[in-house]
Amino acid sequence: VPGGTGMGLPAAVRNRVAAVHRGSELPERLRLYDGWAARYEQDVAALEYRAPYLAAASLAFAFPAPRAEARLLDVACGTGLVARELHRRGFRCLDGVDGSAGMLERARSTGLYQELRLCVLGREPLPAPAEHYDAVTVVGALGEGQVPSTVLPELLRVTKPGGFLCLTTRSSPSNLRYKAELEAALGQLEQRGAWQKLLAQEVEYWERATSEEESTQGTGYISGVVYIYQKCPVPNLEEG
């Protein structure tokens, strides 16, 4: 069991993480992300941030082979952490969108994406045609003061019937209200027959907590959850 609390994190890291999660206004938040881009990967390494790894592993588990030709959209792609994990699992056709130009510049330098576009989710539609992607990932951006849960239909719109959606959120105290809203929205879309839930995996050691209040039962870590949904109608295997 990883020991120590998030209080062992450098204050600068704690402050940068807290700043982007502090429901600031959108222009200010995007400016913070632009400014954070250069240090982002060091900071999330210090946080032991496992969401990109966990999300990619879950999606790969659900996804039918072959993967190399499948088209994926990495929403709120940041510097490309999720792309790196997907690439390691055989996914090669990746597009990304993010609201921060600074983050996109870093993502571009990885060489892992075919196309990268600036897009502020919740404010504007995704720059993609309907039913275009075999899978869509939103890792780390669904949270209080970040991307609203009202974007779910837009994520569904660009996903092919039978395609997969991989979403994550934090289960820390400051995000519980958001998480409840998100799960209500996920459930409503399932009741309407828009998609079906394949996985909702609660993970105890998601990342290091940046404060004692956020820490799960004094572990020094916060927990999180990975969801995998499949868009309906699901292709009938017998027909093939």
UniProtKB/TrEMBL annotation:
One of its GO terms (molecular function) is S-adenosylmethionine-dependent methyltransferase activity. Residues 73-163 form the Methyltransferase domain. InterPro entries: Methyltransf_25, SAM-dependent_MTases_sf. It comes from the Eukaryota. Pfam families: Methyltransf_25. PANTHER family: METHYLTRANSFERASE, METHYLTRANSFERASE-LIKE PROTEIN 27. This is MET27 protein. It comes from Pheucticus melanocephalus (Black-headed grosbeak). The gene is Mettl27.
